[in-house]
Amino acid sequence: MKTYLFTILTLLGMYQITFGQGFANTFTGSDAGTKNTTGRYNTFTGYGAGYENTTGKNNTFLGSGAGIFNTKGSGNVCIGFGAGINMTGSNQLYIANSYDMPLIYGNFASKRVGIGTITPSEKFQVEGRMRLGGNKAGVWYETGATDWFVGRGESSNHFRFHYGDDKMTLTNDGKLGIGIGAPQASLHVNGTGKFAGQLTGTDALFSGELVSTNATFSGHLKANQVILNIGSFPDYVFAPQYTLMPLEQVEAYIQKHQHLPKVPAATQIIKEGMDVGQINVLLMEKVEELTLHTIAQHKQIKAVKASEQQLKGKVEALEQQLKEIHKEIKELLKKK
After folding, report:
1. Which H or E run includes 276?
2. Alpha-carbon radius of gyration of the chain
3. How far is CA 156 from CA 140, 159, 178, 217, in A?
4. Which of 14, 18, 10, 8 is nearest to 43 (CA)?
5. pLDDT tens digits along 103-133
6. 212 near 199, Cβ under 8 Å?
7. What beta strand segments (E) does the chain contain?
8. Per-residue pLDDT tens for 273-311?
9. Cα 4 vs. chain centroid, distance in angstroms?
10. Would strands 26-28 and 112-115 be described as parallel, antiparallel, or unpaired?
11. How far does Cα 140 stand from its chain's mean position?
């Protein structure tokens, strides 16, 4: 009996196990929970753990100096040497082995967890790099009947955006596929493409639809169909009030400027490039103007031909009259 009593007294001397002045507290270690007054359901283990906490409740501080300066917080969990040493407030998680940034921080009230940060703005936030390994390593996003998966392919090193099937794939040799799981080009789109900004490239091959407001290519552009949104078309040439430039003025303009009216000069096209939509509109305008000139010339030719036929008839009539006069003269000469 004396031996057991001696052992208990020795343990109490070594670890200073106290039960505090509050209710249902367990304080283990020198100066652990020293200033507790009315705190309840706290567990402080380690030298100075929870030293300053006076009225907090439901705290768990494990480690030397864990939560040492927290005065009134409740619902905190600090694990490790110096974990949460500068922590204030309640409902927080600190896992650390020094006074510096904790390895893991959590906020039980907002249900947020941070790694490398004590101010996570999302449910899970990592400051710095994060690495996932193994086949199908990635993240699932629950959206309902079908979930999003973002990560590595099951049988390849491709990075996939999967929703029922592969929506976008990035291969380990730098090829990006949209709507196709095995892209064959740096950008391989299976479907339509729409660009609100500028699209610049050296070579492009399209088998579907490309919709863009601004595109630049320094190489080849190959497509099955190109549709340009130009906003207007030169049917105005056929309007009654349209003034058609006479061909004499067109000739004078060409001799002076070395290009057609309204059409950009070669120097401008070479310097600034050719607006395909604008040039096609201008070409159609010139085709329609030429059509009007051709129609006018056709009418003139028809009028000339009609006049020619009339003259031909008159000439034939005159020739017939001359023949008859010649015949009459011959008969008169015979009578003499």
Report:
1. helix 276-335
2. 47
3. 18, 9, 17, 33
4. 18
5. 999 999 999 999 999 999 999 999 988 877 7
6. yes
7. 26-28, 43-45, 60-62, 77-79, 92-95, 104-107, 112-115, 124-126, 138-141, 148-152, 159-163, 165-170, 176-178, 187-189, 192-206, 209-223
8. 888 888 888 899 999 999 989 998 998 898 888 888 888
9. 74
10. unpaired
11. 21
User: For residue 90, is it left (φ>0), alpha (ψ between -120 and 50) or beta?
Assistant: beta
For CA atoms 276, 277, 283, 284, give the dihedral sign: positive
Contact (Cβ atoms closer than 8 angstroms) between residue 214 and residue 228: no
- Estimate to the nearest angstrom the gap between the alpha carbon of 34 and the chain centroid: 58
Phi/psi for 41 (5° steps) reads 55, 35
> Any idea which residue has 């159609």 for tokens?
284
Dihedral angle of Cα 111, 116, 119, 120, to the nearest 10 degrees: -40
Two structure tokens written together for 4: 């057991």
Residue type for position 249: Q
d(CA 70, CA 256): 90
Structure tokens, 233: 């078309």
Question: 25 with 16: CB under 8 angstroms?
Answer: no
Residue type, 83: A
Q: Count each helix (H run) and each strand (E run) in the chain, helices first.
A: 4, 16
Provide φ and ψ at 125, rounded to 5°.
-135, 130
Phi-psi region at 83: left, alpha or beta (left = phi > 0; alpha = psi -120 to 50): beta
If you search the block for the tokens 């652990």, which residue do you land on?
Answer: 32
Segment-wise mean pLDDT, segments of 10 residues, the chain, 336 residues: 38 45 90 95 97 97 97 97 95 96 96 96 90 73 76 73 79 84 83 71 66 66 72 88 91 93 90 86 91 90 88 86 85 76
Q: Is 278 exposed, middle or buried (0-12, 13-18, 19+ CB in 10 A)?
A: middle
Cβ atoms of 38 and 22 within 8 Å: the answer is: yes
